Amino acid sequence: MTDLSSLNENQREAVLWDKGPLLVLAGPGSGKTSVLTHRIARILEQSKGQHFRILALTFTNKAAAEVRGRVEKLVPGELSRVRLTTFHSYAAELLQQHGNHLSFRPDFQILSNDADREALLDDVLGRLRKDMAYSLPDHFKAAQLLPAVTRLLEQCIPPDQAAVVLQQANVENAIPLARVYAAYREALHLTNSLDFPSLIAESLDLLDKYPFLVKHIRKVYKHILIDEFQDTNHSQYRILSLIAQPDPSTLFVVADDDQIIYQWNGASPERIKALRDDFGVSELQLPENYRCPPLVIELANALIEKNLNRSAGKKPLKAVKQGEGGDVVRVFRFDDVDGEAEWIAQDIAKKTPQLRTDCAVLARTKKLLDLAGRKLEGAGVPVYYAARKDEFKSAPLRMLHAILRLVNSTEDKQSLARLSKAFYELEGISIELAPVLSRASADGKDLLRCWLDEVKRRDALEEETLRLLETGIKPLLNSLNYRDFADKLLKWAEACQQTSRPDENAFNEFDEEREVWKLLLAEITKKFDGEDVSLHQLLHELDLTSKTLPKPPEAVPCFTIHASKGMEFGQVYLMGLVEDQLPSWAAVKKGDNSLEMQEERRNCFVAITRAQESLTLTFSAQVFGWPKQPSRFLSEMGIEL
User: Fold this and answer.
1) Is 27 annotated as a binding residue?
2) Which residues make Cβ contacts (< 8 Å) with residue 463, sequence separation at least 6?
3) What are 26's strand-pairing partners?
4) Is 316 annotated as a binding residue?
5) Which range marks the domain in which residue 142 is found?
6) pTM score
7) What's the CATH number where 615 sits?
């Protein structure tokens, strides 16, 4: 039996809850991950021998992996009965299994970066301009139109309703824009492709049109758990509403309305209100904070209570840690932001290497973080930024990824171009695309086979490279054994690394990305525990997952507040606490009680509650040449300047 003795009374009540749908309002550092994992473990223990599964949706692969690892420790061997994944990954699985109803094949490609999406939109615009029935404005360009197409997709607007929606919103060129949107969605179908927003839009369309699929999902997944529910947008909530019906009694939702900081991406306090109205959820609160020192909790409570649209009866955070001496909270004012960043860098640099690894610099904007990062590097302190990385950078990993994509999608011209570019950087052999495309068209062969034929005609081919092509790619085309091929290509790349290459930058980040590949492969394999991961499943997971390099042990993270959410650090430096930065210029313009200002207050709340040991708050009289006033949040926290 799972041991619940480490949980407090509120946590145990949430884990053992059996009285219908439940909303757990879990403050920062309240042990919500522990509650989720223990609840999953408890359900698995009590239902041994039964065939239903558990669906647990999170918002990041990191969170899913953490919960997966903890569940495996609590109930070894039972993980195959749990689907722990993100909303987008679950949408991809739905479309793999049932997308044929919408004319998608299971091996669809995910367009994970804007360059691929713009290329597809360019093709759409070219075709529409050739059609005399359409008249598009001359200024319509893919790069400018993509944000509007993305917004329509994120709102899951059906193509036949786009014109009305755009006209009601008084959007200029509403009718031609609606045509472009409809043609883009049609092009996704024709090319068997999906991008991030269309994964959700098409999944919702699938569940709306085919109610029997909803019944099937509910038959398979008896329990549905949602982590970080406050981050859901309207479309994700609609998917949840469909799969949780008609019996939502086993719905278990963890949220915190004080940590809604993705309003720009559709998150809203209205989502929690809708959950209450639609599902009649009971509520439990986890106000105990095990992370922060008591003084930080005092500041956080004083700040967040100024927000007007919090849940009724929301309890203040309760510090579990004992009071600590020393400079738990420090506040410093500087004449200009350059001096502010320099002081932070020097303050961190003078710490021992061991203490430095416990520090993090947070700010509202990337511009501030870039300045702090430069100062830290100037002081001899390595820096780590948490930027999302959709594609590999090193030539060997780009070559590997492109080949796997071409095996999966035999007419993928973008991947063919990427393969040829990476191969040139590694071997100095230029393979023109035109002959490859012509041969593929004339012979009816796929692009990768034709590319191989073209490469092998070159006399300059090295013996090791020829061996890779013959004993690596050829068998891959027949067996789809991507693991064996990846091992061969990476060993070949290691050997290449020892000799001079045509492009000296070809191996930039290779050693790190090789480790990232291994980590991702291991995590994807674990996620599909008990199942063989097909090539298209692997590619979908790769495209949905950031290829960000792991943080070097000695590096100091410089994160935006958004990137720091869900994390914790020993010593937090929050810089740029001035008006027009935190809170943002837009929030200041909207006013003190605006939704924008309340979100900025939540941003500040999230930032300060990352601190485990100490919190340093800094601000300047001048930021990037502009005079600034101290942030109103300082006085709201009760800090006297």
Assistant:
1) yes
2) none
3) 286
4) no
5) 109-191
6) 0.91
7) 3.40.50.300
